[in-house]
Amino acid sequence: MSNNKKNEQLEQFKTDDHGKKMTTNQGLKISEDEFSLKAGTRGPTLMEDFHFREKMTHFDHERIPERVVHARGYAAHGEFECYESMKEYTKADFLSEKGKKTPVFVRFSTVQGSKGSAELARDVRGFATKFYTDEGNYDLVGNNMPVFFIQDAIKFPDVVHAVKPEPHNEIPQAASAHDTFWDFVANNQESAHHALWLLSDRAIPRSFRMMEGFGVHTFRFVNTEGKGSFVKFHWKPKLGVHSVVWDEAQKINGKNPDFHRQDLYEAIDSGNYPEWELGVQIVPEEDEFKFDFDLLDPTKLIPEEDVPVKIIGKMTLNRNVDNVFAETEQVAFHPGHVVPGIDFTNDPLLQGRLFSYTDTQLIRLGGPNFHELPINRPVCPFFNNQRDGYGRQTINVGQVNYHKNSLANNTPEPALPTEGGFEHYQEKVEGRKVRARSDSFKDHFSQATLFWRSLSDVEKQHAIEALSFELGMCKEKSVRQQVVDMYANVHLDLAQPVARNIGVDVPQEGVTGDGKQSPALSQENSSKLPDTRKVAVLVAEGFDASVIKVVDEMQKQGLEPAYVGEMLGPIKAADGTEVEVEKTFLTGASVLFDAVYVAGGEQADEAFNKKVEEYVQEAFEHYKLVAALTDEAAIMDKLDIRNATGVLIDDKVNKGFAKEFAVLAAKHRFWDRNLQAG
Q1: Superfamily covering domain 528-677
Q2: What fold is seen in the domain 38-173+201-214+230-283+304-372?
Q3: How confident is the model at residue 7 (pLDDT cuts 50, 70, 90)?
Q4: Catalytic residue among 51, 70, 337, 668, which?
Q5: Is 143 a catalytic residue?
Q6: How far apart are CA 535 and CA 560, in angstroms?
């Protein structure tokens, strides 16, 4: 077929929606596209909402075969250990006794990029955990940020369409820095809070191992007496919460687009098993309305200072996958995979996810039997009257495949709650059928302001720079102006400098001054350990042999030093001792390490010294710890950084140098270099 005929064929299928009235795919005009149909403004979403189901079904089936969102992911196996019995709050068996262990499978992911995109994109990170409990699989499907962009699931296709590459040119990949995303945020201002998290350092984590995880929604615990409590889930990394800087992220994407997955794989492979503690915020039902926000609003969080996080267990990832496709790609998560003692609330985003996830798996994994894939199979046996379908692996025997029956003595039969049968929480529900949102969902800015005020000065500056970059990439000035005007409702200290940076009118009215803070929201208040921090040890032939002892001591302190030189292979110290160069300046760039130690060597030539200078300069500009032997300290003088914070000189007299180095490496970054530069 010629190109002209092909173009003519395609022409009849083109459509321009501009200026048209919205309809369903059947042509029915739609009067409301903002809210799902509910039983009362705070009630559950109704199954008869054909518009929501059509919209969500179409969205769920838009990509084949990779996930519509969270396509770029990596996973590992591990176990969860319960610290104490939670029977007072929940009858979930895996939380029933101290020391009880449950196998888990965890998948981390970026949200917006395709499966082949780089991992250091500015993005939300998925944090999905499958617990293989004795009562069936329980999936805690969350993110590394505690809130979400939208309040109602009917808007989920819209926010993802907006953040994905723009449809007319498929640009940009794995980036929110474009017109359609920020146009969505400006015109759907419930997104203001989560978008600010996206602008924070949380969006460019140092490692999966250094991310918090959140269940996002308010769920329910239910105990054996049927008493319910509201609950928010938190994963707290033992290594603390740490990020990279934006320039570093961009360079890492070029040097190693698999940086996060490689970091996780190598940590587990070397026995440095990542750990997170599971925490819960529990709210008695009678306190549902005591807050100045709605617990059912997924764009809101509960400040930890108001409801402390109770630590109830620890998760350890201790085994890499054997086959990425069979496990990581075929794993099917679903927030509706629950066990007795864990139930839902009427959060309208959660309600929609309960439909969407199963629908998505049907298209991705070929049919209704995705639960039979090895990675998805529960560890406990399962029995029901479901048969046939794509990918069926179970060979059911017998003639009965229905309930009720007499031919098989009416088996399999439902289990009573006392026998472990799941029983939905008996919440009273009443209200008129409406497409509306509760008035208690209408505050879109106060928690964004809380988050802003809780950030350190450095984190605030990073957010200003991030928003300046994101909006600076938007072509439409009207979009840039709308977003700046919106963020004036969060704080003028954010909106005004961004406005000046991107050439729009500077808002004069908005939120100013100090107010309530939540210190737990700042990464600067996170725990800091030297464990698994990677150190580049720069060496040339004839380096001082004392460096080898320092490297050994670094390892004892929990650091991971690696020799970096001009060529791979063995290299000799001045006394003839050989070590192995593991990375070169080409393959071991400074952005791939957390700290730098310059050892040099007798045969270091001008070219080597030039590379070392550039290496140290880049690490210093990324606020990292840099150190050198006394003999190599001239490099620090040449760069005029000897007296800056986070610069250490090894005089070979201090036997505690490696320990001092580890203490400084644990600080992560030395942000006060900004002040010194000023």
Answers
A1: Class I glutamine amidotransferase (GATase) domain (3.40.50.880)
A2: Catalase HpII,  Chain A, domain 1 (2.40.180)
A3: low
A4: 70
A5: yes
A6: 6
Question: 238 near 315, Cβ under 8 Å?
Answer: no
Q: What architecture (CATH level 2) is domain 450-524?
A: Up-down Bundle (1.20)
| Three-class secondary structure of residue 217 per DSSP | coil
- Contact criterion met (CB below 8 Å) for 29 and 51: no
Which of 51, 137, 143, 346 is flagged as catalytic?
A: 143
CA 74 to CA 260: how far, in whole Å? 9
pLDDT in tens, 486-520: 999 999 999 999 999 999 999 999 999 999 999 99
In the chain, CATH 3.40.50.880 sits at 528-677
Q: What are the pLDDT digits (tens) for 75-86?
A: 999 999 999 999
Q: In terms of pTM, does the model score above 0.90? A: yes
> pLDDT of 371-380, one tens digit each?
988 899 988 8
pLDDT, residue 263, reads 98
- CATH code 1.20.1370.20 region(s) in the chain: 450-524
- Provide, for the chain, the percentages of residues in helix, strand and coil under a 3-state DSSP scheme, each rounded to the nearest 5: 30, 20, 50
Helices (H), 84-177: 156-163
- The model's confidence at residue 11, banded by pLDDT at 50, 70 and 90, is low
Taking Cα atoms as reference points, which of 485, 442, 441, 447 lies closest to residue 467?
A: 485
> Can 61 be counted among the known catalytic residues?
no
d(CA 53, CA 36) in angstroms, rounded, equals 10
The answer to whether the beta carbons of residues 147 and 296 sit under 8 Å apart is no
Q: Is the dihedral of CA 290, 295, 301, 307 positive or negative?
A: positive
Buried b (16+ CB within 10 A) or exposed e, 161-189: ebbbbeeeeeebebbbbbbbbbbbbbebb
What whole-number distance in Å separates Cα of residue 339 and Cα of residue 94? 9
